[in-house]
Amino acid sequence: MTFPPSVSHDTGYVCRLKKTLYDLKQAPHAWFDKFFIVISSLGFVFSSYNSALFVKCTNISRIIMSLYVDVMIITGDDIDGILVLKTYLARQFEMKDLSSLLR
User: Fold this and answer.
1) Does 61 score more than 90 pLDDT?
2) Which helix (H) or strand (E) holds 72?
């Protein structure tokens, strides 16, 4: 590995990475840890039946999100809450909205 041009360094030193790289085995775990922190801060909890199923229930609404590898399926009866969730997730992660599941 070579130093980026913008980094000044002395010869004989190595880089210490502060971010996880996608090619490493730990990358999915690091991504899921960050994802879990973000989702938990929004009030979601993961299902006792499936750790890839996240649920947010209030007195008047319910949002359910299923996560499989790099695909999220978001559904529920709170349309405004779903839009807020998608906007927030788009600011935290690089993602695309592929629209409705049923076409």
Assistant:
1) yes
2) strand 71-76
